Amino acid sequence: MTTTGTAEPASAAATLSLATTEDIPYLIRVHTAAFRSDLFAHLMLLLNKSDEGEDGAHQEFIRKSIEQWLADPDGTTQVVKAVDEEGGQLVGWACLVVKRKADGDLLSKSKSKETAGGQVDDASASFAPAAPEPAVAVAVAPSETEEHVVDPSRPASSPALAQEVPSTSPRHTPEPQPHHHPQEHNSDPSQTLAALMRADLQRMETKFLSHLRKYLVLQGLAVLPAYQGRGIGTALVKWGTRRADEEEGCAIWAHASPASHRLYRRRAGFMECGKWEVDLAEFAPGGKDGGRGWGRYAFRYMLRARRRKAAVDSLT
Length: 316
Fold this sequence. Notes:
Number of strands: 10
Oligomer: single chain
Largest sheet: 8 strands, mixed
Order of helices and strands: EHHHEEEEEHEHEHEEH
Helix content: 25-40%
CATH architecture: 3-Layer(aba) Sandwich
CATH topology: Aminopeptidase
Low-confidence stretches: 1-11, 106-174, 181-185, 310-316
Strand order of the largest sheet: 6-1-2-3-7-8-10-9
Distance between the termini: 15 Å
CATH superfamily: Gcn5-related N-acetyltransferase (GNAT)
CATH class: Alpha Beta
């Protein structure tokens, strides 16, 4: 794949290339820093804090996910890194997974298990890039909203899916979701919260994508806070949209955090097709009387339809 990025007046320059196992410590560092201020991630880690503290729990979870992605025997997963050209520092990364329908079941090859953080980790699907491709220098332009994107609790998914997506109007109003209180499920608030999030994610993925043979999932995106707002995240997302358009010929799907959904819509042609909202205080230690000001948190479901080849060619 050749991924180039030219954009308006560039405020930063980065090189995009596929990550390797040698990059794992740096990928973990970026993800930990990017999600440190994310309330959903913070609560999940607080509920599952290890002896090494919240950062230790986060790092252990993301290490397992990255190792699986980089071990993918099918080559359906790419972990793409952004390296600052000036200092040589790894400043951002994204994970892209191609999902393919198998035996009529979207995730038939996945066997998920709970991690220590109450989050899903598909042990059966290792994820790795194909043979490393040449690094591509990218001039990245400033973006309007550029922060961490999805999703510390997102499953490390399995091989993935593409074709036309259902016609959805840009005026589509996300449907309200039924609210469930933690007491209706089990006594572990982190497992309850993760289960509710996963159930709605599966429902929406089935609703919008189950008819497709193949689609691409932007499994994760993280940019160091000091480099947010410089177009790094936009360049990483556009690596994914080019892969969807030029190689896979498929739609692309993302489960976006509050800090990132505008990036998808404004900079990469995604549309919001729904959201899942939760009152975090109901799951936090001390509940609504815990005094932490958790508030409401919303994941948004972002979808970019398959581009027909003629339309893609007209852009090149």
